[in-house]
Specification:
- With about 190 residues, this protein is an alpha+beta fold.
- The protein folds into 2 domains: about 50 residues; about 130 residues, Protein of unknown function DUF192 (Jelly Rolls).
- Helices cover about 30% and strands about 25% of the residues.
- A 7-stranded mixed sheet has the order 5-4-6-3-2-1-7.
- The longest helix is centred in the first third of the chain and has 26 residues.
- It starts with a helix and ends with a strand.
Length: about 190
């Protein structure tokens, strides 16, 4: 680092900058340096939050977009994003990097059917909870994210054992961690 600074200071272009900097009155220099320091630290903080969001982003009150609704399964609150259009259903959680522990995506179908889901463009494993009205009909646990080189025609499909009208996607392990089982009641709020 010291070598880099020394070589930077020897450059004629940078020497002109240093000469101009020396001409600035001391109080202005202090304000400029403090401003640069604050700006640099702000950028670092923003990058750190983007890379590793703090646990306070858990949407505990389900009031942060897009997780504005809530449901309870086996006395466990899940903040959900409602997916009810063909465009949103087609995309699902694909291309997202993660879900917080108490977040999920609820697919709302107009009528009962046996939908087929796949993990196209998924980056993390999930549990798929298949819901018939207000009761869990089936659970596909720990569905893995595919290798990014897997051809589309080789991606496995997942379906419930009986018709459902809702599908909840949550982080893998959610069902086991919270003792979620078939026939548990689901309460929508």
């Amino acid at each position: 680092m010291v070598i880099w600074i020394a070589s930077w200071m020897k450059s004629k272009k940078n020497l002109k900058l240093l000469t101009k900097f020396k001409q600035i009155p001391l109080p202005s220099k202090i304000i400029l340096l403090i401003s640069l320091f604050v700006f640099a630290n702000s950028l670092i903080l923003i990058l750190l939050i983007k890379i590793n969001p703090p646990s306070s982003y858990n949407n505990k009150d389900c009031d942060n977009l897009p997780y504005t609704h809530q449901l309870d399964i086996n006395n466990n609150k899940v903040c959900i994003e409602i997916v009810d259009t063909p465009e949103k259903m087609s995309k699902g959680l694909s291309e997202r990097n993660y879900l917080e522990e108490n977040q999920g995506m609820l697919f709302v179908f107009g009528s009962k059917s046996i939908p087929r889901f796949w993990m196209k463009d998924m980056k993390f494993p999930i549990d798929i909870v298949w819901i018939d009205d207000n009761e869990i009909a089936d659970i596909s646990k720990n569905v893995p994210a595919p290798d990014e080189n897997t051809p589309l025609n080789q991606l496995p499909h997942y379906s419930p054992s009986k018709p459902v009208n809702y599908v909840l996607e949550v982080n893998a392990g959610f069902a086991d961690k919270h003792n979620v089982e078939i026939d548990n009641k689901v309460i929508y709020q």
